[in-house]
Amino acid sequence: MHDRERSEKTEGERAILVSVLLPGQVYESDPLNELEGLATTSGAIVVGGMTQRRETPSPNAYLGTGKVEELAILVDHFKADVVFFDNDLAPNQTRNLEKAIGVKVLDRTELILDIFSTHAQTYESRLAVELAQLEYSLPRLKRMWTHLSRMKMGVGMRGPGEKQLETDRRLVEKRIHDLKTELSEFERRKERQVASRRDRMTVSLVGYTNAGKSTLMNNLTDAQVLAEDKLFATLDTRTRRWQLPNWGPVLLSDTVGFIRNLPHRLIASFKATLEEANQADLLIHVCDGSNPAVRDQISSVYEVLKEIGIEEKDTLLAINKTDVEGSDAYVQSVLNRYPNAIPISAYTSDGLDAFAHAVSDALSRSFKEIDIETGVDNGRMIAYCSAHGDVLSTSYSDDKVTIHCRMPQRFLGRINDPTVTIRNRRDIGSLEELKEGITASETNNGPAPNAELHETVAEDIATEDVA
Question: For residues 434 and 8, what is the distance between their CA atoms, to the nearest angstrom?
Fold first, then answer.
């Protein structure tokens, strides 16, 4: 319900921002802030903005008639080249708006797709973006041919616009099929690649876009991946070796950032890229502790994780950017809601020691401290313990060897040698009892060791839905 003037620059398209606030939407800060970040990342110069509260979107132009007229005046006043909506528009709504205000209109999904296409670096990510763009544009092809006439000359003699539209539709559908086929091969290859690392513990960074995941990865592993103060600076997964204190080497992966109302087409297209997070032993959810909407962002990330089926995986919440001036109140707000979260600064390294210990403790939850007794001539079993566990001590008695080690449950479950005796150091039990929970730990359906975090986030989302 307000207009805002902004500083002008000399390059880039001049943009007006628009957001329609519907019932149930709650913003802890300016509702146009995130859209402004998206617009700036795309290279546009934001010169003004407006919002409107409505019970339901207008079927013709999403905005009400009066607001459409007001938007036209704003566009003319600021000599704008483009209007960005923070909502998803139907093809007819976009067409009617462009006709009314005289400049091009892009909705939230189209803007995000444009940013992804600019930042995609690898062949795989470019294919994923192209697929999402084509699936988005397919129902909108009609708008591209409104400049061509339709000569009504009877059945079978339709005008060139409609003929070209049908030709384009067939070409786009064929290209979509080809892209899905190629990306399916990438997906299978990625699954094999990730599966080949199952002898190593893996940790995956997830979180809202621009939360500082790449900066944290660079600090922990000296990976030198691109880290910029921009939305969606990272679209390609990077995996590096992290020497975790008091633990040893683990594999740390950086993933594409999430965002509120992330287009479903992008989630599907980037399924192969998200395979690292899907197969990880531990997720580190990095949130931006300097952002007023940090709790909303935490909920948004959880929603995306739920959509890709990994919301119950063991997760550690890290509150980043605690070094930013004015972040104390937001960080405390998160800690009040999620008391087990770890405050850190990936930029200054503050809190990273406590963070590393928290990661070690989280990984240890899936380990068993055991004694494995076997014959001294069972070299295969001795090598297996060294390869898949942390051997703490070895003792010999007659023709037997006892190996005291820590081993992940999933590797423990693969021991089927009848000549091997396994005892749990913590609470003595049978091999069958030690193997309990292995199925749950190897799938995404078992209870998360830190279920409190997931339950709390789910409660927040349910509360927002009721509101």
Answer: 65
